[in-house]
Amino acid sequence: MAPSQMRHLYFLTVLFLLLFSFAFSQTVIDQRNQTIDERIVLESIARRWKIQIRDSPRSPCELSNEENPWFGCGCQNTWCKIEVLNVSGMNITGGIPLELFELRSLKILNLSHNILNGSIPREVANLKSLTHLILEANNLSGHIPPEIGNLTELQYLSLSANRFSGDLPRELGKLAVLEELYIDSNELTGTLPLEPNMTKLTTLWAFDNNFTGPLPEVIGNFVSLLDLRIFGTSFKGPIPSNFSALENLRILRLGELENGDSSLLFLRNITKLSFLSLRNCQIVGPIPVFFEHFTNLTFLDMSFNKLNDTVPVFLKNLTSLRHMFLGNNNLTGNFPLQIITENLTTLNPIGTSMDMKDTSESSDSFEYIILPKSEFLHKQYFSLYVVIYHVYLCMSKHLLPYQYSCVELQFVFI
């Protein structure tokens, strides 16, 4: 290679290295400035909320109420970005500041248990890296913005216990990796715009809202569900038959379904349940034999339905059961003493035609046994009378006949 060519190559190499070095240093400066800008934004928000936010020396995964408020950063070399902001239970008032949505690397945002008002700004769409958005227990209102559907990395969304109203946005169905959804205790209307692809859902709380229409059949696609709670709404029955696919459920609470009789057959394969409440769901027919396999049940409420026939003896197999509510049904016959196990502490057969005259013989394990008022006239052991919303329970365990020990119970019915 000629000397002139060597000099030319050397010059180009040096020029390339200088340009690369300048570009790299400029990138580092930009990244540092970006981090400084984020902290300035955070400090501005903290001044508005009149709180002090400190950096956490630990992993953002270690969110704790004992370390509140705090933020956590994700760092690569000298480049740090704010990824976690936890400001829970600090009595913060006012609206959600727009500056918050400049923290575009946020993965976890927890503003729960404050007194925030106003609506969720549409700028929430800027937080595309969010995996956890926790706004529960505030005073937020208005419609939930459709831009929330842009948060496609969301795994946990809690909007519980606010005053959100209107229909849920259809864009909610875009949250395909969502695992936990809490929209209970609001003023939401319409239906649940969920999509069949939301199969990662493990928890769905939608109770205490103004939802209408049929109970959504799409829920039967969410086979990973562990906890499903929909009651205190105006959804209509019947319970979709495809709910039988929800075999992983541990907690099922449905209630106040209007119209449309349902049977219990959809429960046949959902045998892992520990908590089952189907209160006021227009359930018809007898208690099916497969209930004997629900050996993990600790709580059973099927009150205010149309159950008929007798209480089956095979319920004695439910040895973990602590609370059983069967009141206000069409059940008849003698109540089988065999099902009263040592773990059963609460029993409510009010509003049935069952004969309970021998129940007191197996009552030693009971904390609460709730019997019809008529039993007071000829029974020495238990009596019940109701005054307004207070329930008085009188027992004569280990006492002489007609010497009653009474306690006042409130909120007996769940």
UniProtKB/TrEMBL annotation:
Coiled coil: none annotated. Residues 1-25 form the signal peptide. GO terms for cellular component: membrane. The keyword Repeat applies. Pfam families: LRR_1, LRR_14, LRR_8. InterPro entries: Leu-rich_rpt (IPR001611), LRR_dom_sf (IPR032675), LRR_R13L4/SHOC2-like (IPR055414), LRR_Rcpt-Like_S/T_Kinase (IPR051824). The keyword Transferase applies. It is found in: Membrane. Keywords: Kinase, Membrane, Receptor, Repeat, Signal, Transferase. Residues 145-253 form the Disease resistance R13L4/SHOC-2-like LRR domain. One of its GO terms (molecular function) is kinase activity. It comes from the Eukaryota. This is LRR receptor-like serine/threonine-protein kinase.
